[in-house]
Fold:
Amino acid sequence: MSAQSVLEIRGLTVNYGAIQALKDVTITVHAGEVVTLIGANGAGKSTTLRAVSRLLNPRSGSIQYQGKDIARLRADEVVRAGIAHVPEGRRVLARLTVEDNLRLGAFVRTDNEAIEADLQAQFKRFPRLLERRKQLAGTLSGGEQQMLAIARALMSRPQLLLLDEPSLGLAPIIVREIFSIIRDLNQSGVTILLVEQNATLALKNSARGYVLEAGQITLEGPAGALIEDERVRRAYLG
Amino acid sequence: MLAQQLANGLAIGSVYAIFALGYTLIFSILGIINFAHGAIFTLGAYFTYTLMGLQFGFNGLLAQQKLPFGLPFWVALLVGAVIAGLFGVFLERIIFRPLRARGADPLLTLVASLGLAVAIVNIIQYLVGAETYSYPSGAALPGAPASVNFGTTEAPVIIRTAQLIIIAVAVLILIVLTFFINRTKTGRALRAVSEDATTSSLLGINTNQLIRLTFFLSGFVGGVAGTLVGLNVGITGPYLGISFGLKGLAVIVLGGLGSIPGAVVGGLLIGIVEALVPASLVSYRDALAFAILFIVLLVRPQGLLGRPLIQKV
Structure:
């Protein structure tokens, strides 16, 4: 593997009972990149992310993060290793306050002063979360919940951020805001593996992309080339 | 007279409350009722008795046996509760975790916990018989009077020292537990796991570790409650915890499943109502607790302080 690859997924196969969800998937993410995974519903995009964060057990294949095999770690150990996963549907803890959600994002850390500083940094980045600091997360709007989910993931100071459908169900203006945040994050040095149904917007903000069809990678390359690719245009860009 | 009944009700109600807390802790994390809790409660009372270096009776495998040393009551209470807590962790490891790993139906887990309760009660009987045991009088506060009159000589409100101790310990447990859950990092993680275990693990929380901790806390609090009841009315045999097990169920359903303030309010309410039952109707006392439960559930199915069963998405 190359020195600067952060994540190397090789030959990943995942089964749900008798159904093969992923077959021999190989994906590389280099340090500092945004890599997008596009594909239809049920193609296995979320499954790929869930395998990396160890929410499910792959049948075979290896997942290397910074040169270490993480395919046998527990989900909480993956977070400790430096990977944060913003799951599909945001999954904020609705019965906890915004602030409690954010503090839980830093659960693996013990540097209390730096945590306070990061909390303020998130409030600066997402002023609406500051306004709603003491509110229960369940009372936030969809866009605010997505921001909270991203901010919460950042509280663990991840080196690799897995983002699952961050634009799902959000108004276009909020989607643009989310993507501008993703660009900022990447510029500040966070490597991102992004799963998106909004393929155009995702590829425009990515270095490279992979196309997943029925559990297999069918196409990969620089994002610019994928946007121009006839097959991608027909299937995903409309 | 009324003040006297209220005081009695408060004492028994505080035991109901901390007993029910043990149920509530586990329910809020795993969504199951652990029926073995009543048995752990009973064990707690026996552990304290044993650790005080007191002798067992004439029946059972351990007849006439006692430890070569004896701890003072409060130390024995604490150590006994820790052992009860560890016993809870042990049960989690050998029964509940394997069931969880297999994705067992909650009903199956419920039945397993019921089986555990029966097994533990029988093992206790096998070891120390079905006799009644009691802590030596004045064990908790040597030299203190057996009771204190808070009223006047004409209208006495006599509260036994044991009842005062129960109320004080229950209040202490509630304060510490509330602080722990609402104000500490681990408590925050517990609340997270109770809402969504998968998401919690994505935040770096080791959910199995927190589930172990919950079983420890539940067993610890149960053990303390068992000893307090032993102090108040004696250890009436291996079945001591069974009636509490059912009453505790009424308490948490009345208060609202998974709600800690609900367990407290429900416990005190049932305790006080029971104490107000006139002496002539005393054999209907238990029926009354369940009658209240029935009426409240007709009006408020989620319990007094529970969340509505159907949540807004």
About this structure: Chain B is about 65% helix and 0% strand. The beta strands of chain B are 147-149, 158-160. The longest strand of chain B covers residues 147-149.
